[in-house]
């Protein structure tokens, strides 16, 4: 049976990780990634890259937990290998702190991260405005390094990569058997999906090598995340704001909020401002769709809408997308067999 030709649209975290998973798990296919932007110019490059899940309201918790666990285990294995520095993965310990006791004292992901516990009174003394906290160790990606590492994996696996904007998925019908749509916020235009909307995030990437413990305010707005090459200071969450221009007032506000939690950041150097649009949706769209045009069919697998939590679940959603691609291949093989009989 001839190899099925698969096009993956999008070269952010989700497109690259899905293409890698497909190329490693399905032998009877060839994989091509097509995207108008690549690292370092995607939303995924801007992210802090911390593995702390955000809850998707439209997805059962057991499913989200499984995606997180698969992602955590995958990156933990890389972290424990000689690939860790190339892939930009590090383990980081720290605190998530709350001004009032949260409803969820034990979040669903507490037994996936390492050493989860409540903070002690002694630890909380550092944060006089906060009454409660959780201490744990998790993983962090240096996002541009991780995206380059995924691109390298793709090329080693014999995948093709093309720079091109797709106006309509149907353009791919003449050359490809199956399309995997990982276009993130681009799906609003490409699929006409009005459920997906931007949540603008502005962060600062600073040089402060003495900061090696993360701090996240439980409201999710303020965070200090030390990584391999810099410390990410966040942030903003501006719903339906499409502006990619840095806002100087937000930068000052982020810096002040972070310094209030970690005063030594006043000495941070080399402050760079980055802005990204989180591709937000009530639920990640992870499903098959058959496009039909003039009686011809094009199977599509969607994998987009990861919002604030793409890094935390990407390997799990890539695995699920690959399973759906496998189902499309089985259906195509079944129908070509029938046609021959
Ligand atoms: C400030 C900020 C901080 C964040 N921090 C974290 C964090 O700490 N932890 C975490 O888990 N998540 C975090 N996130 C969320 C995470 O960045 C996203 O969930 C993830 O990057 C989404 O990846 P993606 O591949 O879907 O999107 P993108 O990176 O936007 O990739 C989409 C790709 O599709 C391509 N594309 C779109 N339309 C078309 C088209 N028509 N034709 C061709 N190509 C197309 C684009 O060029 C791009 O390559 C953060 C996000 C932001 C903005
Ligand atoms: O909330 C966090 O800790 C970081 C993040 O995912 C974001 O800013 O989207």
TrEMBL record:
GO terms for cellular component: cytosol; peroxisomal matrix. It catalyses: D-aspartate + O2 + H2O = oxaloacetate + H2O2 + NH4(+); D-glutamate + O2 + H2O = 2-oxoglutarate + H2O2 + NH4(+). Its main location: cytoplasm. One of its GO terms (biological process) is D-amino acid catabolic process. Selectively catalyzes the oxidative deamination of acidic amino acids. Suppresses the level of D-aspartate in the brain, an amino acid that can act as an agonist for glutamate receptors. Protects the organism from the toxicity of D-amino acids. May also function in the intestine. D-dopa binds at residues 223, 278. Residues 5-324 form the FAD dependent oxidoreductase domain. It comes from Gopherus agassizii. Its EC number is 1.4.3.1. One of its GO terms (molecular function) is D-aspartate oxidase activity. It comes from the Eukaryota. It is found in: Cytoplasm, Cytosol; Peroxisome matrix. FAD binds at residues 43-44. Keywords: Cytoplasm, FAD, Flavoprotein, Oxidoreductase, Peroxisome. This is D-aspartate oxidase.
């Amino acid at each position: 049976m001839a190899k099925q030709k698969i096009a993956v649209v999008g070269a952010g975290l989700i497109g690259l990780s899905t293409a890698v998973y497909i190329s490693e798990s399905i032998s009877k296919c060839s994989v091509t990634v097509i995207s108008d932007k690549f690292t370092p110019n995607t939303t995924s490059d801007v992210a802090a890259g911390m593995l702390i899940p955000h809850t998707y309201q439209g997805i059962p918790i057991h499913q989200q937990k499984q995606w997180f666990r698969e992602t955590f285990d995958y990156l933990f294995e890389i972290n424990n290998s000689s690939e860790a520095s190339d892939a930009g993965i590090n383990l980081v310990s720290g605190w998530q702190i709350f001004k009032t006791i949260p409803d969820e004292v034990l979040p669903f992901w507490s037994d996936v991260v390492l050493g989860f516990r409540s903070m002690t009174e002694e630890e909380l003394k550092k944060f006089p405005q906060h009454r409660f906290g959780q201490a744990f160790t998790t993983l962090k990606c240096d996002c541009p390094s991780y995206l380059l590492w995924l691109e390298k994996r793709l090329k080693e696996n014999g995948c093709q990569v093309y720079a091109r904007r797709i106006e309509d998925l149907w353009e791919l019908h003449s050359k490809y058997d199956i399309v995997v749509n990982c276009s993130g916020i681009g799906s609003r235009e490409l699929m006409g999906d009005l459920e997906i909307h931007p949540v603008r995030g502005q962060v600062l990437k600073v040089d402060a090598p003495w900061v090696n413990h993360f701090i996240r305010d439980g409201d999710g707005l303020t965070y200090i995340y030390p990584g391999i090459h810099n410390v990410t200071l966040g942030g903003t969450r501006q719903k339906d704001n499409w502006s990619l221009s840095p806002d100087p007032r937000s930068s000052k506000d982020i810096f002040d909020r972070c310094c209030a939690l970690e005063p030594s950041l006043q000495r941070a150097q080399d402050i760079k401002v980055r802005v990204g649009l989180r591709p937000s949706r009530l639920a990640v769209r992870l499903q098959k769709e058959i496009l039909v045009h003039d009686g011809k069919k094009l199977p599509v697998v969607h994998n987009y809408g990861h919002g604030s939590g793409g890094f935390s679940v990407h390997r799990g959603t890539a695995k699920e997308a690959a399973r759906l691609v496998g189902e499309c291949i089985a259906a195509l093989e079944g129908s070509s067999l029938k046609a021959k009989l």
